[in-house]
Amino acid sequence: MIFLEFERPLEKLYEQITKVKEVAEDGVVDMTATIEELETRIKVTRKEIYSNLTGWQRVQLSRHPERPYTLHYIDEMCRKFIELHGDRYHGDDKAIVGGIANLDGQTVVIVGHQKGVNTKMRQYRNFGMANPEGYRKALRLMKLAERFGFPVVTLIDTPGAFPGIEAEERGQAEAIARNLFEMAQLRVPIVCAVIGEGASGGAIGIGLGDHVMMLENTWYSVISPESCSSILWRSWDYKEQAADALKLTATDMLGFGIIDEIVKEPEGGAHNNVGEMSKTLKKQLKKAIAALQAKDVDTLIEERIEKYASIGRVQQAE
Question: Is the pTM of this model over 0.90?
């Protein structure tokens, strides 16, 4: 098990219970009562820790190395998935995966960021930071969905679009802007879910939808806490304060009207029970898709455009 900084009290308890279980295996001393007591303390401590997480702690959970990524959810949620590759302009970006999937009998097109599960795979996936060809691949799949009338599901988890000079040369800003333009008018339902990090244009590039949800321990912001800290305080040491100031949690986003729903995670985070998290997410995706499919297409697009046009309005005092 990998423990985060604020989970240290839990780590100590798990170390104790492991040692006690080793003694119990020898069979010389009955350690049943001690084990039960430690298990109770673990439950109480976990509840205390996760009942009042700060913005920075939720950012840490969203980056947990064992947290499930897009392909984890696809494997758990979908009966069948056919991955499609390439943007038909430049190449195939491994930071964004997508294809046609069967979601309990409902054919959908799923597109999402993929970070990788170890160092080698993270390098292969460019740590989930997409190049322009990634966003163009995503758009190609969305237009495919529109052609055949399939709902679109996007899973967002990125520290941002790739900022390298080669990405700029190939039109990074244009690719993201084009996706926003096309997604606003796409004639099929779009359901978006932030499953980890939702940073800047890298997230919104596949994040414009009719129904947007965030998992409980995720974040969504124009900038990461570390980058915000380095700009405002000239140091990363104030990232905790930056996280609070940015108001980037799911609760904040729901209050601002930027998202429509918060999806509850298992206690301790999505990585503690991937199966349960996948079932919960699938249930909410299916519910959102069913509600959107009941609407007329023109009404759907009109409501989608109005939804984003109304974000950020400030009411004038009388």
Answer: yes
